[in-house]
Amino acid sequence: MSTSASILKAINPRTTKLNLLLIAVPLTWYFAYIANDSTAAFFASMVAIMPLAFLMGRATEEIALQTSDSLGGLLNATFGNAAEFIIALFAIIAAYEGITSGTEVGLETSKTMVHLVQASLIGSILGNLLLVMGLAFVWGGIHYEEQSFSQTQVSANGSLLLLAVMVLVVPTVFHSAVGGSEGASGVENLSHIAALVLLVLYVLFLLFQFKTHSHLFATEGGHDEESTTSKKDAMILLVLATIFVSWMAEILVGSVEVAAAEVGLPHIFIGVILLPLFGNAAEHFTAVSVAAKDKMDLSFAISMGSSTQIAVFVAPLMVVIAWALGVPLTFEFGVLETVAVFMAVMIANLIAADGKSNWLEGAMLLGTYVVLGAAFLFHP
Questions:
Q1: Fold designation for 3-377
Q2: Between 265 and 325, whose confidence is greater?
Q3: CA 327, CA 350: separation in Å to the nearest integer?
Q4: What is the mean pLDDT of residues 236-246?
Q5: Helix (H, G, I), strand (E, B) or coil at 249
Q6: Which residue has the higher pLDDT, 210 or 244?
Q7: Where are the beta strands (DSSP E) in the chain?
Q8: Which helix (H) or strand (E) holds 373?
Q9: pLDDT (tens digit, 9 = 90+) per residue, 68-92?
């Protein structure tokens, strides 16, 4: 089968009904560039990201079948986080433009964008740890009484996540202890140092996982199904879907302020819940679908691995980029956000510590996510 035929088959609604939502891509283009309706463009772009993210998940699953579950999970986490990365990057650029404008409106926009970046990063961690992993545990538990996954993955990812949570807690505590302008300046410097440390540790984690201790992450029993497309076609589909997801994410962040004002939703709720909910759609679909096939190593690598990558790579990278542009983005994310992500990491680590899962544990994770979502909805 040719590459074009393979891609056309992948986006055919007969392959999966979710492809019907691809109609939201031209609708987003129309609302954003023709009708100039920012609110409609905002919601259309969120819908468009879902089927595109599903295609990314399909492509990475095919790649995982022809390589390894751990590499497939890393690829899915990387490309699945492309939307969050683009959203955060464009928000930082908008914050920079607001600061350089020197106007009161520009400075206010800059503060809003900084808070949106912080909220979306926190939301991505919460969404992957609680929602994605919870759905995977529930859906897998419906098909199998008990499932197992690599305890090495739990230990390595869990340790890095706990370190990242410490990085979130320390700046908040530091500012509360010192206070004033000195505290604010100290938090910024502390965040810059912590960001560089986290980036180095993430590189060391990849070296540990794929080079020095790769045997510890090897899955047992091999693959139980055959690939339906070539690695080349899967890579092409993955790249194309990522480009379109990035385009939709750009429109999304450009219209978020107008949409928030018209709909009346708090910025923090949009940042913590809505943006990651649709931006993490790749992880949602792939992690849940492979859990039903009893491929929990891949499912866990996607859900917790994506949270690890956000916390230890994307978040510090955003801080470094903001630092270079003179945007005051720090790891002081706020008390509610910090406590929420701390509790999420602790609960996820405790539930996954034994390397086994069932539907009740998944329901616990989902219940935690709903409670935290309600807290951000009613946040002033």
A1: A middle domain of Talin 1 (1.20.1420)
A2: 325
A3: 37
A4: 84
A5: helix
A6: 244
A7: 147-148, 356-357
A8: helix 359-377
A9: 656 665 666 566 677 778 788 888 9
Model confidence pLDDT, tens digit, residues 20-52: 888 999 999 999 999 999 899 999 998 888 888
Q: What is the mean pLDDT of residues 52-65?
A: 77
Residue 5 exposure: Cα atoms within 13 Å on the Cβ side = 5
Question: What is the DSSP secondary-structure string of 119-179?
Answer: HHHHHHHHIIIIIIHHHHHHHHHHH-S-EE--HHHHHHHHHHHHHHHHHHHHHHHHHHHH-
Contact 337/122 with Cβ under 8 angstroms?
yes
Question: What is residue 223's predicted lDDT score, i.e. its pLDDT?
Answer: 46
Q: Which residues pair with 118 in a beta bridge?
A: none
Residue 363 gets which letter from DSSP? Answer: H
Distance, in Å, from the CA atom of 74 to the CA atom of 58, rounded to the nearest integer, reads 14
Rounded to a whole number of angstroms, the CA Rg of the chain reads 20
- Do the Cβ atoms of 117 and 328 come closer than 8 Å? no
**Nearest C-alpha neighbor of 76 from the set 250, 297, 274:** 297
DSSP letter assigned to residue 60: H
Sequence-separated (6 or more) residues with CB below 8 Å from residue 311: 125, 160, 161, 164, 165, 198
Instruction: Write down the pTM of the prediction.
Output: 0.83
Q: Evaluate whether 322 touches 98 at the Cβ level (below 8 Å).
A: no
Question: Would you tell me how many other CB atoms lie within 10 Å of the CB of residue 360?
Answer: 11
Pick from 358, 347, 246: which is nearest to 296 by CA?
358
Q: What does the pLDDT read at residue 222?
A: 44
